[in-house]
């Protein structure tokens, strides 16, 4: 029992590693913000394109989305991080991480938004266009507000996935939360820093996960 | 109160059936879906202040014809002329023309995330570029005309079907259209709610609003329409004053349809 | 033209492909086995938990909810590192394969519990009442009336979630499970060529794309029925 506590809940070690982990948390949150904002925007554009009536726009988008949903994000990251230099493209770990996660996540956001767009009855668009509102105005003021509300649980749960995803940045030696925790672990031969990292992730994500469940329940009723 | 705002509208709109130029003119309109011909050589004129009802069996193409009038449905051929402007002309801005063509839908199609007032005011702000206050004032006036000024703050799900449809009418007339298209406006309503909507349409007629109405309400067409158009199989079979269509139709198909409906 | 040639030399070198495809194929077998085991165990466990939750025992439900929440909130890589490096410190040693399998099965169980539960709740209450009125016991109603409908509704989300989680078997490379990515990465460092990485990525696409398309199809069928 003592052994267990010492291995996983060594408070001294946790306390010592806390400042370092907080620095890592800063990096993690920074990646999250970039990926959520850019991935969300990119996903929105992809969703509109994949719902388009123009085949030359629709099919490449669907291929893009399905391809990046089929490839594990870690594979993408390693491809970008260690494969691209062979072609003379050297990205910083930060850029590699962002690029890989954006490719992956815009595809996921796109599917969420697409479901939202498809949940809007065509009559809404017709009514709006019949009053002289343009395609863009209709999208902005009539379709999107309803679409986003209809897929709020999925948007939220995708955002949770982004935060979890950023833990992979540690593989590219970017100084994120997990990377620093794992470094401390390997130097101290003790898992408490990673347990601490896990607790930080839990504090960050548990409320969001709860909200997802609550929204979903409300919607199914 | 309601009467006052009604008369103020009549002053603003194009009154006087003496005006020889039609507000809406369809010339040789044609529509095909794939192999299927839905509309063939449709010619129709609607003059200022006229209320024209279109009747006919389902699948006769009457809704498609109506939806061609503001190009919600893309005509496959022919001309659609509204207020002297050719809608099919590539130089015509369809969004600008649609401000002149109001439309009321069978399923109301109110925006669920806006209040009654918001539904009416949205296009006023975005299309007419009115200020928020000005748009809301205009929208409230339109809601008053359909007798719903007191429900301005209600959301669609808080309104009955008949009230929702009247908001739909307010949304269409708020933009000050030259003509309003009605696509089976009472078909989705419970029977006891139909009356209030028809009443509003009747009042619009009185103040000289030009209207083209696809409907199954034979009694309404008979009592209120200036002209009735009977369609079948994508053609206009017969048109004329209601007395002609309902009492002494020229075409055998018209007679069969009208008799069956009575 | 030269650009294309250079590109294919770097990312699709035939000699490298020839040399390393057995290794990648071996990785594919490991990934496939892991994925199958995770899907079967994870989804069954999730289904079982969702059914237990129907019993309405308050303390049990609190435990199930806590389980589902925690495993949905934790990044799998964090858990993998704790299991792999931490457990031996207290005398429990799992193989890398077992660590990966356990972690992802637990994550999938948590997610599928929530999906099944949402499906069960979405079944019309009248179904329970009608079946109970005809004298069936609650467990019979659940198994024969409610679950079939709930499962059908859950299929699209379940498929998508199962794909997302089995894709994470690539995390095994961090602790040395010889799956596709591990094989591809080590082949890359041996050969000094990016080609094995391309092969790895293509292996994943070959493995998962059919399921992605299946998920899309299931989803569109559901939408079609709803309209």
UniProtKB/TrEMBL annotation, chain A:
Which is one GO molecular function term here? transmembrane transporter activity
* Keyword terms, alphabetized: Amino-acid transport, Cell membrane, Membrane, Transmembrane, Transmembrane helix, Transport
Question: Might you report a single GO cellular component term?
Answer: ATP-binding cassette (ABC) transporter complex
Biological processes per GO annotation: amino acid transport
- Of which family is this protein a member? Belongs to the binding-protein-dependent transport system permease family. HisMQ subfamily.
The ABC transmembrane type-1 domain covers 25-213
The listed locations are: Cell inner membrane; Cell membrane
Database matches in SUPFAM superfamilies: MetI-like (SSF161098)
Q: Which InterPro entries does the protein's record reference?
A: AA_ABC_transptr_permease_3TM, ArtM/GltK/GlnP/TcyL/YhdX-like, MetI-like, MetI-like_sf
Organism (species): Salinicola corii
Q: Which domain of life is it from?
A: Bacteria
Q: How does it sit in the membrane?
A: Multi-pass membrane protein
Q: What are the TM regions of this chain, as residue ranges? A: 20-49, 61-81, 87-104, 191-209
Which positions are tagged coiled coil?
none
Q: What is this protein called?
A: Amino acid ABC transporter permease
Respond yes or no to whether keyword Membrane is given for this record.
yes
Which Pfam families does this chain map to?
BPD_transp_1 (PF00528)
> Briefly, what is this protein's role?
Part of the binding-protein-dependent transport system for glutamine; probably responsible for the translocation of the substrate across the membrane.
UniProtKB/TrEMBL annotation, chain C:
Task: State a single Gene Ontology molecular function.
Answer: transmembrane transporter activity
Q: Which InterPro entries match?
A: AA_ABC_transptr_permease_3TM, ArtM/GltK/GlnP/TcyL/YhdX-like, MetI-like, MetI-like_sf
Q: Which UniProt keywords apply?
A: Amino-acid transport, Cell membrane, Membrane, Transmembrane, Transmembrane helix, Transport
One Gene Ontology cellular component: ATP-binding cassette (ABC) transporter complex
Q: Where in the cell is it found?
A: Cell inner membrane; Cell membrane
Q: Matching SUPFAM superfamilies, A to Z?
A: MetI-like
Gene Ontology biological process terms, A to Z: amino acid transport
- Domain named ABC transmembrane type-1 is located at 28-215
Q: Does the keyword Cell membrane apply?
A: yes
- Main location, first listed in the record: membrane
How does the record classify its membrane topology? Multi-pass membrane protein
Pfam (any one): BPD_transp_1
Q: Which family does it belong to?
A: Belongs to the binding-protein-dependent transport system permease family. HisMQ subfamily.
Among NCBIfam families, the record links this protein to: HEQRo_perm_3TM
Protein name per the record:
Amino acid ABC transporter permease
Q: Which organism is it from?
A: Salinicola corii
């Amino acid at each position: 029992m003592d052994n267990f506590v010492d291995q996983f809940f060594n408070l001294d070690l946790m306390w010592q590693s806390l400042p370092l982990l907080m620095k890592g948390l800063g990096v993690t949150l920074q990646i999250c913000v970039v990926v959520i904002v850019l991935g969300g925007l990119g996903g929105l554009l992809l969703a509109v394109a994949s719902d388009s009536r123009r085949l030359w726009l629709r099919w490449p988008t669907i291929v893009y989305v399905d391809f990046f949903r089929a490839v594990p994000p870690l594979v993408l990251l390693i491809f970008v991080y260690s494969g691209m230099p062979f072609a003379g493209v050297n990205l910083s770990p930060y850029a590699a991480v962002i690029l890989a996660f954006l490719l992956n996540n815009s595809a996921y956001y796109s599917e969420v938004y697409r479901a939202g767009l498809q949940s809007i009855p065509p009559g809404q668009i017709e009514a709006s266009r019949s009053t002289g509102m343009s395609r863009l105005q209709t999208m902005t003021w009539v379709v999107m507000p309803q679409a986003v509300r209809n897929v709020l649980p999925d948007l939220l749960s995708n955002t949770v996935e982004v935060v979890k995803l950023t833990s992979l940045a540690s593989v590219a030696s970017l100084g994120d939360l997990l990377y620093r925790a794992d470094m401390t672990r390997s130097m101290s031969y003790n898992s408490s820093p990673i347990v601490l990292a896990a607790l930080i992730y839990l504090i960050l994500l548990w409320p969001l996960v709860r909200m997802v469940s609550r929204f979903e329940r409300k919607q199914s009723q | 109160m309601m009467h006052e705002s009604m008369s103020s509208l009549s002053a603003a709109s194009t009154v006087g059936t003496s005006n020889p130029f039609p507000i809406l003119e369809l010339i040789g309109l044609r529509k095909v879906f794939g192999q299927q011909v839905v509309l063939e050589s449709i010619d129709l004129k609607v003059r200022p202040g006229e209320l024209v009802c279109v009747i006919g069996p389902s699948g006769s193409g009457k809704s498609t014809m109506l939806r061609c009038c503001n190009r919600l449905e893309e005509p496959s051929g022919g001309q659609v002329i509204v207020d002297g402007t050719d809608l099919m002309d590539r130089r015509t801005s369809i969004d600008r023309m649609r401000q002149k063509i109001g439309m009321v839908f069978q399923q109301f199609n109110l925006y669920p995330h806006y209040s009654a007032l918001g539904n009416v005011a949205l296009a006023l702000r975005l299309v007419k570029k009115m200020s928020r206050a000005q748009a809301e004032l205009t929208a409230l006036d339109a809601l008053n005309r359909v007798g719903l000024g007191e429900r301005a703050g209600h959301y669609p799900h808080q309104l009955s079907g008949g009230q929702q449809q009247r908001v739909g009418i307010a949304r269409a007339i708020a933009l000050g259209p030259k003509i309003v298209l009605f696509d089976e406006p009472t078909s989705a309503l419970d029977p006891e709610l139909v009356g209030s909507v028809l009443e509003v349409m009747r009042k619009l007629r009185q103040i000289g609003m030009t209207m083209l109405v696809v409907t199954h309400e034979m009694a309404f067409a008979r009592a209120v329409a200036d002209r009735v158009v009977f369609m079948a199989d994508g053609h206009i079979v017969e048109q004329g004053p209601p007395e002609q269509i309902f009492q002494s139709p020229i075409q055998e198909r018209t007679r069969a349809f009208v008799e069956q409906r009575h | 033209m030269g650009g294309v040639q250079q590109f294919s030399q770097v990312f699709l070198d035939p000699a490298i492909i020839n040399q390393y495809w057995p290794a990648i194929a071996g990785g594919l077998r490991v990934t496939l086995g892991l994925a199958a085991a995770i899907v079967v165990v994870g989804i069954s466990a999730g289904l079982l938990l969702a059914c237990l939750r129907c019993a309405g025992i308050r303390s049990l439900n609190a435990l199930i909810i806590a389980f589902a929440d925690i495993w949905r909130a934790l990044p799998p890589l964090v858990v993998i590192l704790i299991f792999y490096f931490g457990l031996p410190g207290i005398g429990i040693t799992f193989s890398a394969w077992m660590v990966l399998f356990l972690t992802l099965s637990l994550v999938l169980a948590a997610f599928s519990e929530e999906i099944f539960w949402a499906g069960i709740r979405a079944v019309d209450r009248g179904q329970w009442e009608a079946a109970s009125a005809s004298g069936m016991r609650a467990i019979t109603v659940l198994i024969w009336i409610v679950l079939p409908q709930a499962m059908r509704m859950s299929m699209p989300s379940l498929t998508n979630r199962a794909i997302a989680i089995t894709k994470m078997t690539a995390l095994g490379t961090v602790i040395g499970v010889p799956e596709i990515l591990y094989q591809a990465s080590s082949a890359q460092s041996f050969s000094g060529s990016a080609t094995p990485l391309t092969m790895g990525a293509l292996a994943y696409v070959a493995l998962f794309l059919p399921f992605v398309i299946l998920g899309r199809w299931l989803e569109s069928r559901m939408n079609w029925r709803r309209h």
